[in-house]
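Q: Please design a sequence for this.
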């Protein structure tokens, strides 16, 4: 993680961080009106900016995302104690994308220079027709399920979480159908899905953990909404932006490897083990955060089985494991 510190010695990195912060912070403000959880989160398609800049500029994108989120909170009037965890969460958000996508970036730049059978440069073959068919059918089923379950059952009262979940399902279904039917989008979307999910879970996990510690919002509500909101937006928008921006960033010398000297960039110590630990930590973090607030624990009197301080002491080791894995990846 040394590049998070050494980047401040590079004028170009500082400029990229400022550009990211300005774009993310400024473009986020108009979406403050599309509230999901008042004072905490909203529908925010601009989350694609931190991930895109994280992939391109690495630590500059990470610091820019953190500062930009804080700017958005201040300009939108939603700043508070949880903004500190929002700063850390968005730093981890873009940095996770950088760490996980370093390999695919090299491959994509190489593929962009390899002539195909038609004499043009570009990506390899599209997913097979069978794979696209499965994705299309799955997406249609998800979208239909969202529509069918839109209205709550008779005698039940739906809250914002019910409708937020249905919107997320509808967007996810539409994204799967688009992936299956649009060849270029499908080719671009499949490699970014793991990065979209992991970086979104890291962001939501850190912020949700923070609000759990502060006692302002339960982890289960906030973290899941942030993770789903971010992952869907990234999966839909990043495949459209990355193929257009990445080659140009390389030509302009804006990639981390083009700006920072090799000694200032951390070398993955154990990438496979690091990624495994990160995924185990993230899954455990969410499993504990969601599980202890639902199911059999929710039915117990006085939330028996939960620590007196809340759920965060049980989650802390999983978050630490995810961060250790990120450092090793």
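A: Design:
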């Amino acid at each position: 993680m040394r590049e998070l510190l050494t980047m401040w010695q590079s004028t170009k990195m500082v400029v990229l961080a400022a550009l990211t912060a300005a774009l993310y912070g400024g473009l986020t403000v108009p979406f403050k009106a599309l509230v999901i959880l008042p004072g905490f989160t909203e529908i925010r398609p601009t989350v694609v900016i931190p991930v895109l800049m994280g992939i391109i500029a690495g630590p500059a994108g990470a610091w820019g995302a953190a500062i930009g989120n804080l700017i958005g909170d201040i300009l939108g009037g939603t700043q508070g104690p949880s903004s500190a965890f929002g700063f850390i969460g968005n730093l981890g958000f873009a940095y996770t994308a950088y760490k996980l996508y370093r390999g695919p970036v090299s491959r994509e730049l190489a593929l962009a220079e390899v002539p195909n059978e038609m004499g043009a440069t570009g990506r390899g073959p599209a997913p097979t027709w069978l794979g696209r068919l499965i994705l299309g059918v799955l997406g249609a089923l998800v979208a239909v399920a969202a529509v069918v379950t839109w209205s709550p059952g008779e005698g039940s009262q739906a809250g914002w979480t019910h409708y937020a979940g249905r919107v997320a399902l509808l967007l996810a279904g539409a994204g799967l159908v688009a992936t299956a039917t649009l060849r270029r989008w499908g080719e671009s979307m499949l490699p970014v899905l793991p990065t979209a999910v992991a970086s979104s879970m890291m962001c939501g996990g850190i912020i949700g953990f923070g609000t759990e510690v502060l006692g302002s919002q339960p982890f289960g509500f906030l973290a899941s909404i942030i993770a789903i909101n971010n992952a869907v937006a990234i999966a839909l928008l990043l495949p459209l932006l990355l193929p257009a921006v990445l080659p140009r960033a390389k030509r302009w010398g804006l990639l981390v490897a083009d700006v920072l000297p090799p000694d200032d960039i951390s070398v993955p110590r154990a990438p496979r083990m690091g990624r495994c630990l990160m995924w185990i930590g993230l899954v455990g973090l969410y499993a504990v955060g969601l599980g202890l607030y639902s199911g059999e624990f929710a039915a117990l009197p006085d939330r028996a089985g939960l620590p007196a301080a809340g759920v965060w002491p049980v989650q802390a080791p999983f978050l630490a494991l995810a961060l250790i894995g990120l450092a090793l990846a």
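Q: Thanks. Anything notable?
A: Residues 268-329 form one domain. Strands lie at 35-37, 41-42.
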